[in-house]
Amino acid sequence: MVKDKKERLKELLAKQKQKELMEEEKREYETVLKKVNELFPTTDSKEDVEILSKEDSKKITDELFDEFPFGANGIEWTLMFYKTIFSNFVDYEGALAELVIKNHKVNNEICYIIDLYSQHVIKTKLIKIIHRVEEVRNWDRYIYSPQMKLVIEFPSNDIAVGWKK
């Protein structure tokens, strides 16, 4: 009889813990959704901007870390052969668009916004990010395009762009 009560209590505690985890995930997702709506306020369709699951987000983040040389403070730019770093004092939005379009045939390339403090990655088209780079820009975010082997990082007040051929 006592064993049944203990087992029942364990089951109830496990259910409560599961419910709390689900609520926490829902809050995290709502936070990311709020960020997406702030970054891309005029987006109508889910196809334009998508929030990936935790599992898919982890795969994309791992792929980014495997593809480029990361150190303690972000990408090790001295190890990157193809790179450009824009100062905050130039028209970096136009320069970034020109660099990417000139070196990479930008059509509908998929791109990811990876925020190292969020468990969800945002998936959209690179051209949307280029047009909203000022809003997307944050020191702990990376823009990653696996098709083009391109990464954008925002160290200090600069914008660093690197790619592999």
Description:
- This protein is an alpha+beta fold.
- The chain has one domain.
- It has five helices and nine strands, in the order H-E-H-E-E-E-H-E-E-H-H-E-E-E.
- The protein has a seven-stranded antiparallel β-sheet with strand order 1-6-5-7-8-9-4, sandwiched between helices. It has a two-stranded antiparallel ribbon with strand order 2-3.
- Strand 5 and strand 6 (122-125) form a beta hairpin.
- The longest helix is centred in the N-terminal third of the chain and has 38 residues, at 2-39.
What key phrases describe this protein's structure?
9 strands, 22% strand, alpha+beta, 165 residues, seven-stranded antiparallel beta sheet
Helix and strand pattern: HEHEEEHEEHHEEE
Question: Which residues form runs of ≥5 with pLDDT under 50?
Answer: none
Largest sheet: 7 strands, antiparallel
Quote the distance from N terminus to C terminus: 69 Å
Overall domain count? 1
Rg for CA atoms: 20 Å
> How many alpha or pi helices?
5
Alpha-beta content class: alpha+beta
Mean pLDDT, rounded to whole units? 81
* Coarse morphology: elongated
Helical content class: 40-55%
The largest sheet has its strands arranged as 1-6-5-7-8-9-4
- Strand content bin: 15-25%
Let me know the number of strands. 9
How would you summarize the topology of this molecule?
Blueprint: H1 2-39, E1 49-51, H2 54-67, E2 70-71, E3 74-75, E4 82-86, H3 92-103, E5 110-115, E6 122-125, H4 126-131, H5 133-136, E7 141-145, E8 150-153, E9 159-163
Antiparallel strand pairs: 1-6, 2-3, 4-9, 5-6, 5-7, 7-8, 8-9
